[in-house]
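A.,

Following up on our hallway conversation. Structure tokens first:
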């Protein structure tokens, strides 16, 4: 089973990466992902392949997610082990398949972290430039590509050595490379922007009444 805290760290980092990619949209000649308005949310599906040293095949998980700059992020794993991770103004919470809540992070530090993620995904990517060196390019297929490298002295260097993200209208692929040589490959699909309110099952999770 994939360690939950490592999984959450990858999810959070992926989002930051995604944000970073968005943040790199300085040049008008390179396309950038769509901005999520404060009255909108982004929903979609994900597949995560975790490649670990010593394992011949990746550990694969999949599920769906909802991101609202105004409300937070719900990352719901459906296979192989059901569970939900919530990032909101209060911090990071994990809900297992029995409905048990585990508050993994609380306090101002993590609140700022979640606010940073939301800001980036909303198109306000400037804060990421303080943590990453960002380079942008386009692929042969016309998609944008963003590479994020932690700045020297950044604490995130202990967890991530490089992040590569590609996409068109939205972030579609994220590769997280780690100092250990392990890497995660995350594919986001079936994404669509919708107007609030959130679907009831996701809204209930963010308010703490869904379990």
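Then the amino acids I'd put at each of the 211 positions:
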């Amino acid at each position: 089973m994939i360690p939950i805290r490592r999984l959450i760290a990858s999810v959070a980092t992926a989002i930051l990466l995604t944000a970073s990619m968005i943040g790199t949209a300085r040049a008008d000649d390179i396309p950038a992902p769509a901005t999520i308005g404060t009255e909108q949310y982004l929903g979609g599906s994900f597949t995560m392949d975790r490649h670990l040293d010593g394992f011949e095949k990746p550990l694969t998980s999949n599920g769906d997610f909802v991101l609202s700059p105004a409300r937070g992020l719900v990352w719901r794993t459906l296979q192989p082990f059901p569970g939900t991770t919530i990032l909101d103004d209060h911090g990071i919470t994990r809900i297992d398949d029995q409905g048990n809540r585990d508050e993994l992070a609380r306090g101002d530090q993590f609140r700022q972290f979640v606010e940073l993620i939301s800001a980036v995904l909303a198109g306000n990517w400037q804060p990421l430039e303080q943590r990453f060196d960002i380079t942008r390019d386009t692929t042969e297929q016309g998609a944008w590509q963003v590479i994020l490298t932690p700045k020297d002295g950044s604490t995130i260097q202990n967890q991530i050595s490089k992040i590569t993200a590609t996409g068109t209208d939205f972030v579609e692929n994220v590769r997280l490379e780690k100092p250990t040589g392990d890497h995660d490959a995350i594919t986001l699909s079936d994404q669509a922007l919708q107007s609030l309110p959130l679907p009831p099952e996701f809204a209930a999770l963010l308010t703490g009444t869904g379990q």
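The radius of gyration is 16 Å. Curious whether your intuition agrees with the design.

B.
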